Amino acid sequence: QVQLVESGGGLVQAGGSLRLSCAASGRTDSLLIMAWFRQAPGKEREFVARTPWRDAVIYYADSVKGRFTVSRDNVKNTVYLQMNSLKPEDTAVYYCAAWAVGRSGFDNWGQGTQVTVSS
Q1: Pairing outcome for strands 2-7 and 10-13
Q2: Digitized pLDDT (tens) for each residue of the chain, 119 residues in all
């Protein structure tokens, strides 16, 4: 089992930046893919970005491509989401998720961190 703890959310004006962190603990040796999702009020959870734990191919949702950057620190077992040029429509609870060896999808989730972008 992998435990995930997000941090770094907050209130920012449109055009501003935030960096989210997701610290993993537990069976980190089993990690395959780490990802960020978000859920806005009244909407379904949506994919934001994903990075393999030991590879370099990163995927982004079209809505954040060119503005958000995923990075990881395998020594600190931490994944980051750098968010630039934030827009009010980026307002959501952001969740970190992990896909581990032997699992069929993202079944380890953090508690979420609120990001609010004011216009």
Answers
A1: unpaired
A2: 899 999 999 999 999 999 999 999 999 999 999 999 999 999 999 999 999 998 878 999 999 999 999 999 999 999 999 999 999 999 999 999 999 999 999 999 999 999 999 99
Q: Can you give the three-state secondary structure of 57-78, one letter per residue?
A: CCEECCCCCCCEEEEEECCCCE
C-alpha gyration radius of the chain: 14
Nearest alpha carbon to residue 39 among 109, 103, 107, 105: 109
**Contact criterion met (CB below 8 Å) for 77 and 28:** yes
Q: Which residue type occupies 5?
A: V
Cα angle for residues 108, 81, 79 (degrees, 5° grid): 50
Mapped onto helix, strand or coil, the DSSP state of residue 36 is strand
